[in-house]
C-alpha cells in the first residue's frame, strides 16, 4: 500500500473530521454568533474573535499573533467582508502550523539515519501514553519496520501489563522487567536486544510522574545516558505525549517536560472527545516543536500522521 494512500486516504480524512467534530462545532458556532448583523471585519469583530480563539485553547500568545496578522490585512485592504473571515483565518492558522521549523510531512519516517532508530516517549500519567506507544508501534510495523518496545515505566501499577497488551495487538516484541525495576536497566536491555535482533525502531516508555521536576529530570537524564552508552546518540528522538482534552494543562505539561529534557516532537491525544482542539495550534507555535501525530479515536489505527492542511480543513469544515 502506498504511503500517501495509507496515511491520507478518504477514510483517514473522515476519521479526522469525526474526531474534530466537537472542536469544529464549538468554534464555528461561536464564530457565527459574532458575525450576526456584521458585513465587515472591524475592531469589535476582532476583539470577539480573540476571545473565541483563547476560549478554544489556542493560547494567548498564538491568538495575539493571529489577530495581529488579520488586523494588518484589514488595515491594508481598508476592510474585509465577514464572508472572507473563514478563508483568512484558515490561511493564518495554516501559516503558523506550516512554519519552516515545524510539522514536516513524512518526517516521522526518517529512521534510516540510525539503525536502530531509538525513540523515547515521555508524558504524564493519564494522557494515553502507553496506548499511544502501542498505536505508534503498529504504525511503524504497518509500513514494514521491525519494532521493539521497552517497558521503562516500572513505577505505575499495571503499566507493564498494559504495554504488553498493546505490544500483542501491534504484533511486536516487548522487553520488560518486574515492577519497580530500574528504568535505565530496562532501557539498556531493550537497546542491547534491539541491536542483536536488528530492529529498525525501538520505542522506550518512561514513567509519567511530574510531582517533583528534579527527580523527573534526573531519571530521564539517567535513562538517556544509559541508552547513549549502548547506542551512540540514542535516543535519536524524544516524543512528548499530551492530552488535548486538558487544554491549558497541556501547555503546562509541555513547559515542564521541555525543561526536563530535549523534546523533539509531539503527539496530541484524545482530540475526539473534546472541543479543545485549538491546543494543537498553540502548543506547536509557542514551543516551536512539531506535532507528528494526533489521536482522534480509540482504534489502533486512529493515531494519525499530523497534516496541517487536513487538520485546518477539518477544523473549519461546515455541515459536519
Features:
320 residues, eight-stranded mixed beta sheet, 13 helices, 8 strands, disordered N terminus
Describe this structure in words.
- This protein has 320 residues and is α/β, with parallel strands linked by helices.
- It has 13 helices and eight strands.
- The chain has helices at residues 3-7, 10-19, 21-34, 43-55, 60-76, 85-97, 129-142, 159-170, 183-197, 213-230, 248-260, 279-287, 308-316; strands spanning 117-122, 147-151, 173-175, 201-205, 237-243, 265-269, 291-295, 303-305.
- It has an eight-stranded mixed beta sheet, with helices on both faces.
- Strand 6 (265-269), helix 12 (279-287) and strand 7 (291-295) form a beta-alpha-beta unit.
- Helix 11 (248-260) packs parallel to helix 12 (279-287).
- It starts with a helix and ends with a helix.
* Record field, number of beta strands: 8
DSSP helix fraction = 40-55%
The gyration radius over C-alpha positions equals 21 Å
Distance between the termini: 29 Å
Order of helices and strands: HHHHHHEHEHEHEHEHEHEEH
Task: Kindly estimate the percentage of residues that lie in beta strands according to DSSP.
Answer: 5-15%
User: Order of strands across the widest beta sheet?
Assistant: 3-2-4-1-5-6-7-8
* Biggest beta-sheet profile: 8 strands, mixed
